Amino acid sequence: MLLVQLSDLHIGSQFRPKTFAKVVQEVNDLKPDAIIITGDLTNEGLINEYKECKKLVSKLKTKKIITISGNHDYRNTGYLAFKKFFPFETINELGSDIVLVTLGTARPDRNEGEVGYRQNLWLERTMIKYKDRVKILAMHHHLVGIPDTGSDRVTAIDAGDVLRTILQTNVDIVLCGHKHRPWVWNFGNLQIVNAGTVSSERVRGLFENTYNIITIKGKKVAVDLKIVGGQRTPLENIVKNYSQFGQE
Ligand SMILES: [Fe+2]
Ligand SMILES: [Fe+2]
Question: Which fold has domain 2-240?
Answer without folding.
Answer: Purple Acid Phosphatase; chain A, domain 2 (3.60.21)
